[in-house]
């Protein structure tokens, strides 16, 4: 079996090389694609072909993908969590130094100096006190969100001899194992802000995190606080940040999301969304997205999906069927009954759920006919089903 992949952006060749050309046809224009592979292209106004079985993004955020509508079609959306973690971590660390030593402001000042060397030297000696900064050791960095990036940032802060304070009520076992024992646990977001000199956010932008950094929490921070946002613009209430900067409650804001309101503020460093902009990160994201997509198309396994549960089942031989369905009672029972009526013996079965959605993988000892597949698709609540 071969598959057609539609690409909406230029994808790193290191990633595309993970899709063997004898089994995969890959193009930016292709009819009836089995999957879509993209980076930042906006899919919200796109007419997505009915043939599409999966969408994979070579990156972490999926705000550019209509996840909800694809979920109702039984289409998993994959991302690449952690593939760009080191790139973002390094930029966060750079942001700490930029804020602590007023580096951008000082650089801008020097660039605007006029006159000969003697005049420049005199101006530098006279005004350098304007840029007196502080050192990082002993200061507390609060890390909101302990996913792949947050864990790396918190661990790196300890290496700078800072104190690291983390908050993530949904931290996974995998990330907890990676987190240094020296990172302290905050009891709540308010507790984290109240105990931090500097705060960095590393959470996805969803309804629950929109405006997470607000005026109330900024007032909790220690005097001369620094806020860093290399996650998503909407996580921070921009008006609250500007007010805190004007009142002196906040000393500096470093972010990856410039806007008309903040880009010229003297105590704001706004970068042009550079978080994952390294060649290594682009390669890593593309490789992860391609491998995840291939495993789903060829084996039916789901990893790194933002809408469906993780479901990985070693093949038991025979025939495999993958079924996406509503997470309601007796779905597996109805599917099993359908297979039993056709005298099909189940060799192995995996059923996982996530919120309102569920996914089932079934291996049978003998082939499943197109007629039986059609009967399963007709079960109320089944969103999609395919033979693998």
Strand elements, count: 16
Strand residue content: 15-25%
Number of helices: 13
Looking at the structure, the CATH topology of the largest domain is Rossmann fold
Any idea what the CATH superfamily of the largest domain is called? NAD(P)-binding Rossmann-like Domain
What are the low-pLDDT stretches, counting only 5+ consecutive residues below 50?
Answer: none
Structure description:
This protein folds into three domains: 1-83 and 279-308, Rossmann fold; 85-270, NAD(P)-binding Rossmann-like Domain (Rossmann fold); 309-388, ACT domain (Alpha-Beta Plaits, 2-Layer Sandwich), CATH 3.30.70. It has 13 helices and 16 strands. The strands form three sheets. It has a seven-stranded parallel beta sheet. A five-stranded parallel beta sheet has the order 2-1-3-4-5. It is elongated and about 90 Å long. The mean pLDDT is 96. With 388 residues, it is α/β, with parallel strands linked by helices. Helices cover 32% and strands 21% of the residues. Helix 6 links the parallel strand 6 (140-144) and strand 7.
Characteristics of this structure?
Rossmann fold; 3 domains; alpha/beta; Alpha-Beta Plaits; 13 helices; 388 residues; single chain
Structure in a nutshell:
The chain is an alpha/beta fold. Helices cover 32% and strands 21% of the residues. The strands form 3 sheets. Strands 8-7-6-9-10-11-12 form a 7-stranded parallel sheet. A 5-stranded parallel sheet has the order 2-1-3-4-5. Strands 14-15-13-16 form a 4-stranded antiparallel sheet, with helices on one face.
